[in-house]
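[Automated response] Your request has been received and processed.

Submitted sequence:
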Amino acid sequence: MRRLEYAGWAGYTTFAMGFTALSAALPFLRVWLHAPYAVLSLVLLAWAVGNTVGYFGGNALVDRVGSPRVLRAGLFTFGAGYAVLVFFHVLSVWLVVLALVGVGVSLIDVASARLVAHLHRPDPARALNRLNIFFGLGAILGALTTALSLRWFQSPVPVFVFLIALSAAGLGLLGTAAVLPEQAATVQAGRRAAPVWRLPWVWRLGLATFLYITAEVGFGTWVSPFAFREAHVSAAIAALFPMAFWAGLMVTRIIASVPQKPLNLSVILVAGSLAGAALSAGALAISHSSMMLLAAAFLVGSSYGPMFPLFLALSSRRAPEREGGIYTVLYIAVALAALIVPWGEGQLFSPVPYLTLAITPLVSAGMGLVLWLDQRLEGTTAA
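Generated structure:
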């Protein structure tokens, strides 16, 4: 069973590294693929379109064939997609391939979270935080290795080759594992339960998740070109700004995963959203100072660190027998936000760089309001 969890860790590291490698390399890809930022945003949009497709059916697929098999399919699709990117440097090819990679990413994401939640019942909060530490690790590695690769090789291809190797390592850890016995029992219980759309708190958490991903993706993916334009740093240095953001996420997820007294999930979620609103607003005021903007990116990431794992843990704790349906709602919210944000940043906000990050404190404050309302209506849930 530990090998299965390790495979989930490898999958999270892999897809996070792939995503931040793309966002960190945006200033370079603008020249490499012969596309302005407004067109280049379609690269991230294609990834998000694939995510959306995968998230709509990923949890249902886990319920049908088991999380190990879904995770295996996701890792294979991801690795095969990046193998194509190594050899083809044409924008139209990248858009098609990254849409398929996005499907693979959603399968990795869903299957890993469901796998970890089942291995650590009845209280998966810290285990899900541990899983997301590897997302932070992959995000940092993606930005750092991209910065080094651009500096040393003037190309992101070495990073892509490493991603292919990581996905192969995850496949090796999975071996021939199929469905988990306890997972099959939970699926049967879920089929006898009332539909999730009759639970009003599910939609509140779905809206809060949408706002969270809007803030995370909005800041984390566009801070590199924002720093490039506003702080007047090189493309290689600009790639370090997403690394600082994801490092902040990883630090607080490490803290939240350490055994300690029970965590008040709802209070942490509200506090994190309000802190993110204040800190991201502060980042706008100091954007012309590269060092201060770098520090602000770290602090914004720290405030958002435990958010998504705790959304999953809160929903699993409230209704474990309906986990698949509830996770579907949350992951669709993730997909919709990840679909809208790259398009908005590239098509609407790129001529006005301040507006790009000004959205972040607004949606973060909105997330805090929704979570506070949920806490008032449902009561505090502790883990």
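Summary generated for your ticket: The chain has one domain: 2-378. The first helix runs from residue 2 to 24.
If you did not submit this request, please reply to this message.
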